[in-house]
Write a structure and sequence with these properties.
With about 150 residues, the chain is α/β, with parallel strands linked by helices. The chain is built from 5 helices and 7 strands. About 35% of the residues are buried. It has a single domain, classed as Rossmann fold (3-Layer(aba) Sandwich), CATH 3.40.50. It has a 7-stranded mixed β-sheet, with helices on both faces. The structure holds guanosine-5'-triphosphate (GTP) and magnesium ion. The site of magnesium ion (MG) has 4 residues, from helix 1.
Length: about 150
């Protein structure tokens, strides 16, 4: 498969839009007052592969957008804000992706200002990458893991 559709999930303010900006060059963020009101989109080409990233809005009122964007997804990324504890929204997301059989990675974001290890330990058994979308840390590892999984 040469076109890979990756959906970026996570709760409000986790850093989804920032992560997509860190991944690609031609990126669209549809934001209003610094929150995503529709979607983000970014694309990277690696060899023969085109990886399309669709960022979802974190606000609950946009639940419908997540369903629309998730159609035909090959992979998911769950962005977690490691300055906060795991929330119900996060565990619901994990369970939903497991149920839908969509392979996913968890990006433990904001590790520039927080110790991500405690959350990583709690997520024992899930594939995690510690990073910082803002600093561009962990982004290459994320891309390579996606390419290897696809
Ligand atoms: N310190 C730090 N701040 C970050 C990092 N990633 C994102 N942020 C900040 O977190 C805030 C929210 O980032 P966004 O990328 O807009 O978050 P989002 O998940 O797209 O938010 P919604 O679209 O509202 O769901 C912004 O102020 C970012 O600068 C990071 O790795 N480290
Ligand atoms: Mg956003």
């Amino acid at each position: 498969m040469n076109d890979i559709k990756v959906i970026v999930f996570g709760k409000e303010n986790a850093g989804k839009s920032t992560l997509i900006r860190a991944i690609g060059r031609d990126v669209i963020n549809i934001d209003k007052n610094n929150t995503t009101v529709s979607m983000d989109y970014g694309k990277i080409n690696i060899g023969e592969k085109k990886i399309h990233f669709y960022g979802t809005p974190g606000q609950e009122r946009f639940d419908f957008m997540r369903d629309i964007l998730s159609k035909g997804a090959n992979m998911g990324i769950i962005v977690l804000d490691t300055t906060m504890n795991l929330s119900q929204v996060d565990t619901d997301l994990l369970n939903e992706l497991k149920q839908k059989n969509i392979p996913f990675l968890i990006f433990l974001n904001k590790s520039d200002i927080s110790d991500a290890e405690p959350i990583r330990k709690k997520l024992n058994g899930f594939p995690t990458i510690i990073g910082s979308a803002k600093m561009g840390k962990g982004v290459n590892e994320l891309i390579h893991t996606i390419v290897n999984l696809s």
